[in-house]
Write a structure and sequence with these properties.
The structure holds 3 protein chains of 3 kinds.
Chain A lengths: L1 H21 L13 E6 L9 H16 L3 E6 L6 H12 L4 E4 L7 H4 L6 E5 L8 E6 L1 H15 L4 E6 L4 H17 L4 E6 L6 H13 L4 E4 L5 H9 L3 E5 L10 E7 L2 H12 L7 E4 L6 E3 L8 H15 L10 E2 L5 E3 L25 E2 L5
Helix pairs in contact in A: 2-9, 5-6, 5-10, 7-8
Chain B lengths: L4 H28 L7 H18 L4 H29 L4 H12 L4 H8 L17 H4 L4 H6 L3 H19 L1 H11 L1 H6 L4 H27 L11 H11 L4 H23 L8 H20 L1 H6 L16
Helix pairs in contact in B: 1-8, 1-11, 1-12, 1-13, 2-3, 2-4, 2-5, 2-11, 2-12, 3-4, 3-11, 8-9, 8-13, 12-13, 12-14, 13-14
Chain C lengths: L1 E6 L5 H25 L4 H14 L3 H23 L8 H21 L4 H30 L3 H22 L10 H5 L14 E4 L5 E4 H19 L1 H11 L1 H6 L4 H28 L9 H4 L1 H11 L4 H21 L7 H22 E6 L19
Antiparallel strand pairs in C: 1-4, 2-3
Classes of the chains: A alpha/beta, B mainly alpha, C mainly alpha.
């Protein structure tokens, strides 16, 4: 009986202690603080060496440039769906005023309508409303240039390309890569292997390995980890990366990569939001406003290739060349874009950048995955 | 010849199957003593991150660093296994749930992720790795070159482990004892075998092997650190133990078989051979095959001849006097 | 001094509550040490945790949203684990229920049926989807003696690939093919309005909304409890779990029971999947970064274990764990690594598991007594532990 009383007393004491801890737990009001609160939501880890890390670099850039005037934070590994919804709700309850959602599927018009006083931006999406803006950019331009480096580095003209999902974004990048390779290496072919994942080092290494075993002598990718590059280094074949400067993963194989530079856009938008001049819209960054650029070259890129790429980059920048201008033929040889016509970002159905579901001549593999 | 589909598949199967083999050997030892440990994935990840940490922070000769990394990975796995061992052996908790708890605690959203973050291990290649080291003359021999000689040191170590574990279980006194413990702990107890000690020892050994398996991933296969880099290999390893009738040499066969299956899809894609309407087939194939093999292996006749340790999964309670 | 662990002769009822509570308290103490060691203030962390889960404006709603799928998968696990059938496949069964539930919603809702009918059909379809998927390991176990842990687990992967395939890799019935957005990125067809599940708002504390799924989960808990405590089915299932041999002698049909319990477990998980479609996503979510990333099925097993397979406890614990998960999202950030949340969850689970021994055994510290030769004990049957 005594022991039971003792146990009961301990239990009550513990509950009392807990109550004390929570006495004074706030009901959720945050005191008005001067820094402007901005949040970034990542679908993967903030240090994945790829997509999310590039956004994180942008966030750090904003924090550095605006210092104490802004309080930025991030949430990582947030799944699309109810986890995202709860994360947003708690961020808003903490006073966040501007949220960047860095993956498709996170946001839609109905969702943002629930928070009319909060500004939302989504990467790679399409819905636009009063407080929802979309942003992405013409990575295909720099992917095209990186393809030129791949074509120049290839002896046999057989290039391998590791891709994630058969969606227009990936398909147009694969097409741009192939078109670029064909500039420096006429007749080059690009063999695709789909991993069905944006980020999966093991699968990407296996894909690279299989491409090499099937005869590819240069490896490129449109996925987020440097695993394909590590394989390329060990196999002694040149490698074109994606998303970030990953030269340290493959010092000898590294050629270059198309990298996203989110910082300047983020800075512009945060400043606008703070000055109350923010307006929603559809931003499609280009090589001219520094949205995409080429990572520094590796040792395997010849001076001649660098010159060719630089010249081509100038032409793209001043508009005298566009990689998605006709004539463009699909895999079966059918003419899809007439000579002189330029593919638009949104208009044109399957002949638009956002709707492209066919592969150009020279790409081997199925656009359906 | 050496780039033919078959040779590449088998060589890949050996390479990618090695972490599965190490983990399966460890789980085999634990299960032989009657302890089921479903926390293999978590133990592998902790071993992976700690092994990676070692090569990034220790600046010594390559061989020394790598061996040290393996040792530290093994210790990390052992520590994780100790939690499970204490819970299920001493505190007699449910083995299934404890193993799952270990996976949650140590796994991709737990301790291993925390360590990777806190120790700043992301976004860098392993500064030293295990890679093929035999002379290229040997590696270029038709067929057996890439398969046998084109592998890294861990593969060869795993072969030695298979032999060692096999000999241990069949030829040594402790090995025979542990089999008794797994079949009937009560009988073993009356024979004077310390059931608790054997279970602890073999569960901890299982952790050590799992740790090394994890290090294989971050030091040989994909030499970088990301959350959850083992990608579910721990679960496959548990299945492999059953697949292999709890025999080490069959663990090797199963591990390489599964490794090859996982390499199959990209290899076929790269050569434009389609094995079905879509990648759904090729992605699911390894799992479906494993289920089919498990069914065959577990069915009546097979089971009676070489079966699971009878006392697997149950806590042993010595009758009180 | 000798510490011995002895089996209790009877289990006092207050222990069934005290032990879990004390385990959780112990867990938070251990976690506090971990937090201190990693440079975080435990008191403020716990306060933020509690705030985020329950007290902040809108938190309760979010916790209910997070708890609903966990209640379903927890009940699914509890239903099976009680009979020592370790169905690890709730994750995949939930996906399958989501697929069949969405199909029912899209088809019947599209044909203009009344909302109540469409929703009822989704409920049934969800259960069917989960049941069918759970019967695969069930049949393999009942007829081929294949270990259900591994078969149900491996099928989770297959179900995941199927779910992704339906939306990302094919122009299936579930996939949205009309409209510009659809061509840019794969999405599922939105459910018609009649297929959207309602929520019930209580006007207290600023308005709390209970999703229909939450109500169904509570109903399921009641049904499950009644089934196991008051029917012959439940009694036989319990006996089978405790002692298969005794069950066989008593004439319990093993195979039928295994199939029935797996079917029941799968149905509950499948219903959880339909709830995801109808309550929250309003479409079939095949995004690998969506439903498949949340791991509801695996967390449900944790919930079931913490609730000791008692349906009502499971629902309560689902609520608490849902709150904990939300709190984790809120806490994480540049200064609070996401991995810590998993560590704390694991510590809670370990403590609960470890504490369980106290309900069945007592730890006695006694002075060493002189050895007296005792006659060999008579063969007495050991009470089941």
């Amino acid at each position: 009986m005594r022991r039971r009383k003792l146990a009961l007393a301990t239990l009550l004491l513990t509950i009392g202690a807990i109550a004390l801890v929570f006495a004074g737990a706030s009901s959720g009001h945050t005191k008005a603080s001067s820094p402007y609160k901005v949040a970034f939501i990542y679908v993967g880890p903030h240090n994945d060496g790829g997509w999310s890390q590039a956004h994180e670099a942008g966030r750090l850039y904003v924090q550095k440039m605006l210092g104490g005037k802004v309080a930025t934070t991030y949430k990582e590994n947030i799944a699309v769906g109810t986890q995202f919804a709860q994360t947003v709700q708690s961020l808003v309850a903490q006073g966040t005023k501007l949220i960047f959602a860095t993956s498709y599927g996170y946001l839609n018009k109905a969702f943002v309508a629930k928070y009319p006083n909060v500004l939302f931006e989504q990467a790679t999406g399409t819905d636009v409303s009063k407080n929802l803006s979309e942003y992405f950019g013409a990575a295909e331009d720099t992917v095209f240039l990186s393809g030129m480096a791949a074509g120049a580095a290839s002896q046999t003209g057989k290039i391998g390309y590791v891709v994630a999902f058969p969606i227009p974004e990936v398909i147009r990048h694969a097409n741009a890569f192939a078109l670029g390779a064909q500039v420096t290496h006429p007749g080059a072919t690009v063999q695709l292997v789909w991993t069905n994942s944006w980020f999966d080092p093991a699968k990407e290494k296996k894909a690279a390995q299989s491409l090499h075993a099937a005869g590819a002598d240069v490896i490129g990718q449109n996925v987020d980890s440097p695993a394909a590059g590590q394989f390329s280094e060990s196999a002694g074949v040149p490698w074109v990366g994606y998303d970030s400067d990953a030269a340290k993963f493959a010092p000898k194989s590294w050629l270059t990569a198309s990298v996203y530079n989110w910082g300047p856009y983020y800075l512009k938008r945060v400043k606008a939001a703070m000055a109350d001049t923010w307006k929603s819209g559809f931003y499609y960054g280009t090589i001219n406003d520094g949205f995409t650029k080429l990572a520094p070259y590796g040792p395997g890129v010849s001076a001649k290739t660098k010159a060719a790429i630089a010249a081509m980059q100038k032409k793209i920048e001043n508009g005298s060349f566009y990689e998605f201008a006709g004539p463009l033929y699909d895999q079966k040889g059918k003419l899809r874009v007439a000579k002189g016509a330029k593919m638009q970002v949104l208009k044109g159905g399957t002949n638009s950048l956002y709707g492209m579901n066919w592969l150009v001549k020279g790409v081997i593999g199925s656009p359906k995955g | 010849m050496n780039n033919s589909l078959l040779v590449v598949l088998i060589a890949s199967g050996v390479a990618y199957g090695t972490p599965l083999l190490f983990a399966a050997l460890g789980e085999l030892l634990a299960e032989r003593s009657g302890v089921l440990n479903l926390g293999v994935e978590g133990m592998m990840l902790v071993g992976a991150v700690m092994g990676f940490w070692t090569v990034e922070r220790v600046h010594a000769g390559t061989a020394v660093t790598l061996v040290l990394a393996l040792a530290i990975a093994a210790v990390a796995g052992t520590v994780m296994a100790a939690i499970h061992a204490f819970l299920v052996i001493t505190l007699r908790a449910n083995q299934i749930v404890s193993g799952l708890a270990l996976t949650i605690f140590a796994g991709a959203a737990g301790l291993s992720s925390y360590l990777g973050n806190d120790l700043n291990l992301a976004d860098q290649p392993a500064s030293k790795t295990f890679h093929a080291f035999l002379p290229s003359g040997m590696q270029d021999i038709p067929v057996i070159g890439p398969i046998l000689f084109g592998q890294n040191a861990l593969v060869y170590v795993s072969w030695l482990c298979v032999i060692a574990v096999g000999l241990y279980l069949s030829r040594t006194r402790p090995g025979l004892n542990v089999r008794a413990v797994g079949e009937s702990p009560a009988a073993a107890d009356t024979m004077g075998i310390n059931v608790t000690a054997y279970r602890y020892a073999h569960t901890l050994a299982g952790g050590a092997f799992a740790g090394v398996a994890g290090a294989t991933v971050t030091l040989a296969i994909t030499p970088q650190w990301v959350d959850g880099i083992t990608g579910g290999a721990g679960w496959i390893a548990i299945a492999l133990v059953i697949f292999a009738f709890w025999r080490p040499e069959l663990c090797l066969v199963g591990a390489y078989f599964f490794g090859a299956l996982q390499a199959l899809a990209p290899q076929l894609q790269a050569r434009n051979i389609s094995l079905g309407p879509t990648t759904l087939w090729t992605n699911s194939l390894p799992y479906v095959m494993t289920i089919l093999v498990l069914v065959v292996v577990s069915s009546g006749t097979a089971r009676r001849r070489l079966g699971a340790p009878s006392a697997l999964g149950t806590a042993y309670v010595r009758e009180e006097h | 001094m000798r510490i011995s662990v002895e089996q209790r002769l009877k289990r006092p009822r207050w222990l069934a509550v005290a032990v879990p509570v004390c385990s959780v308290v112990f867990a938070f103490l251990v976690a506090a040490i971990v937090l201190l060691a990693t440079g975080h203030n435990p008191v403020s962390t716990y306060r933020k945790l509690f705030d985020a889960a329950f007290l902040q404006q809108g938190s309760l709603d979010q916790t209910l949203i997070a708890a609903t799928p966990l209640a379903f998968t927890g009940l699914a696990a509890a239903a099976a684990f009680r009979m020592k059938l370790y169905n690890i496949g709730a994750e995949g069964q939930m996906y399958m229920g989501a697929i069949t539930g969405a199909a029912a919603g899209l088809y019947l809702g599209g044909r203009g049926g009344p909302s109540a009918f469409v929703i009822a059909a989704m409920v049934v379809a969800g259960c069917v989807g989960g049941t069918v998927w759970a019967l695969i390991p069930g049949i393999l176990r009942a007829f081929f003696k294949t270990n259900e842990i591994l078969t149900s687990l491996l099928l989770n992967y297959v179900a995941g690939y199927l779910l992704t395939y339906l939306i990302f890799e094919s122009a299936s019935y579930w996939r949205q093919t009309k409209g510009f957005n659809a061509s840019v990125f794969p999405t599922g067809k939105p459910l018609p309005h009649s297929a959207v599940w309602p929520g019930f708002t209580i006007h207290a504390q600023g308005g709390i909304t209970f999703p229909l799924g939450a109500g169904l989960a509570v109903l399921t808990a009641i049904v499950l409890w009644t089934l196991y405590k008051r029917t012959r089915f439940g009694f036989e299932a319990q006996v089978l779990g405790d002692s298969p041999r005794a069950a066989r002698y008593a004439g319990v049909r093993m195979r039928r029971k295994i199939l029935a319990v797996m079917a029941l477990s799968g149905a509950i998980a499948g219903l959880g999947g339909a709830s995801q479609d109808g309550d929250f996503r309003h479409t079939l979510d095949g995004d690998p970064n969506g439903l498949q990333k949340q791991g509801f099925g695996y967390t449900g097993i944790v919930v079931a274990a913490l609730g000791r397979y008692n349906p009502f406890a499971v629902v309560l614990i689902a609520f608490l764990i849902g709150g904990l998960e939300n709190a984790g999202n809120t806490l994480q950030g540049p200064s609070f690594p996401a991995g810590l949340v998993g560590v704390i969850q694991g510590i809670i689970l370990f403590s609960a598991l470890g504490g369980e021994i106290l309900t069945r055994h007592r730890i006695r510290v006694a002075r060493r007594r002189p050895k007296i030769a005792t006659p060999a004990p008579a063969q007495s049957p050991e009470p089941a532990a």
